[in-house]
Amino acid sequence: MARLLRCDDYTVGWVCALPIELAAAMAILDQMHTTPPYDHRDTNLYVCGRVGEHNVVIASLPRGQAGTNSAAAVAVQMKSTFSSTRFSLMVGIGGGVPSKEADVRLGDVVVSVPHKTDSGVVQYDAGKATVSGFERTGALNAPPAVLLSAVGTVEAHRKRGQSMLLRYLSKFNRQSGFSREEAGSDTLYKAEYKHVGPDATCGNCSTEHVVAREERSEGVVVHCGTIASGNQVIKDAAVRDKLSAQLGGVLCFEMEAAGLMNSFPCLVVRGVCDYADSHKNDKWQSYAASTAAAYAKEVLSVVPQAVEAVVVEAPALKRTIRQSVSKRHYDGDSTYRSKKRARSLHSRDAFNEPEYDEDNRASSEDSEDISSEDGDSGFSKNENGISDDNESVSSEDDEDGSSEDDEDGSSEDDEDGSSEDDEGGSSEDDESVDQW
Predict the structure, then answer these.
(1) Are strands 87-96 and 12-16 parallel, antiparallel or unpaired?
(2) Whose CA is closest to 163, among 310, 38, 346, 301?
């Protein structure tokens, strides 16, 4: 039976745009949860589950409503309903931009990482028209630092041959439509060559215009850099390359991320499904969605759950420590209070001890004579006739209490507990001394 948690139990948001991206996200979950009840005014539909140590909530854009505005609306409602989410992932597909600097191929993964002056995502259609051309305005926030650190950790694991990407990707091999073999061949045409024929497939396109590329030893390559986001679908290689040059070099184009970056801390992960040219089709979408989802899972696998737990549990921990300290000093145990009483009595005796002179010596001798006359037991009587073991108390205080305080805990009591002894326990100690 699927688990049912509260909305506040989910700490990671996952946003996708297309049904194929949602299917890949659901397939990568380690455990599916029952969606908790939420406000009926929230128009999103959520899929909840667990990825590694994290409880993840997934939302997809309404069908047919792609773009930055729709993505922003979904993110705002998710943040309102699942208010404990600390960051999110925008995971899906995009159009790759192959270049001499980046050998981007179909099925590769592109990750939004700050590059040069860009934050990782640039909105190419936000700006103003000037005499010299289109001028971009504004800037988008960078992804959360914890996710950028996770990207670096995943890259380090890959360099050491410890990447988990292919292992997570193998989960899709059992599902129809997501395998690499079903995607077909990876063909890149020259930028100036246009698609031929009405069909989406390139059966009528000439192979003479295919760009020759070396064979790869790796199946999936992860590229980190700038992602271009806007409300237009790029389907022309010349436009693709021109925009990329104007933006300082981008790795892929997509249509939603710009709506999230400033309102929802987000890392954008895109699987390359086409080359943003006239030859684009849907054959690689399923496989590209699976590579993006597998990489997103690898990123979450290196982010410890403690990142969220520290923020939530710290106040409770402080209260526990404060209560423990309070109980020690105000409730105390018998040993602590006995030592404090003994020290107080010893201090009073020392404070009241008269200076030694001939008169005091004579008074002392007279007192000894009177005590011996009162009886053989060594007890002296006060004015009411009640015997008081002054010598026993004095010797016990001097030998047992004072030495223990001086040797074992004098510095600790004087430094750590002086203020509390004076303020918190003075009245109680005075009463105890009077009773003695």
Answers:
(1) parallel
(2) 301
Average pLDDT over residues 366-385: 44
Task: Please state the pTM of the whole predicted model.
Answer: 0.70
What pLDDT is attached to residue 116? 85
Tokens of 335: 């040993």
CA gap 345, 382 in Å, rounded: 19
254-268 burial code (b ≥16 CB/10 A, e <16): bbbbbbbbeebbbbb
For the CA atoms of 344, 346, 352, 358, the dihedral, rounded to the nearest 10 degrees, stands at 180
Instruction: Give the residue among 40, 51, 106 at the shortest CA–CA distance from 77.
Output: 40
Q: What is the DSSP string of 155-194?
A: HHHHHTT---HHHHHGGGGGSTT-SHHHH-----B-TTPP
Phi then psi dihedrals of residue 37, to 5 deg: -65, 145
Q: Which of 118, 44, 113 is nearest to 85 (CA)?
A: 44
Cα–Cα distance, 58 to 45 (Å, whole number): 8
- 3-class SS of residue 144: coil
Determine the Cα–Cα distance for residues 396 and 403; give it in Å rounded to an integer: 10
pLDDT tens-place string over residues 151-193? 999 999 999 999 999 999 999 988 888 999 899 899 999 999 9
Let me know how many helices (H) and strands (E) the chain has, helices first.
15, 16
Q: Report the C-alpha gap between 234 and 359 in whole angstroms.
A: 111
Per-residue confidence at 398, pLDDT binned at 50, 70, 90? very low
- Structure token digits, residue 150: 């996770």
Tell me how far apart the alpha carbons of residues 319 and 315 are, in angstroms, rounded to a whole number.
Answer: 6
pLDDT digits (tens, 9 = 90+) for 292-347: 999 999 999 999 985 444 444 445 544 544 444 444 444 445 554 555 565 655 55
Structure tokens at 65: 């409503």
Contact (CB, 8 A) for 260 and 250: no
Query: Residue 8 corresponds to which amino acid?
Result: D
What are the extents of the domains in the chain?
3-190+206-310, 332-435
Residue type, 391: E
CB 220 within 8 Å of CB 165: yes
Residue count of the chain: 436
Tell how far CA 133 is from the center of its chain.
Answer: 42
Give me the mean pLDDT over the 27-34 stretch: 96
pLDDT value for 58: 99
Q: Is residue 113 within 8 Å of 148, Cβ to Cβ?
A: yes
* CATH class of the region 3-190+206-310: alpha beta
pLDDT in the model for residue 41? 96
How far apart (Å, rounded) are the C-alpha atoms in residues 78 and 70? 12
242: nearest Cα among 187, 279, 192, 206 = 192
Say whether pLDDT at 113 is over 60. Answer: yes
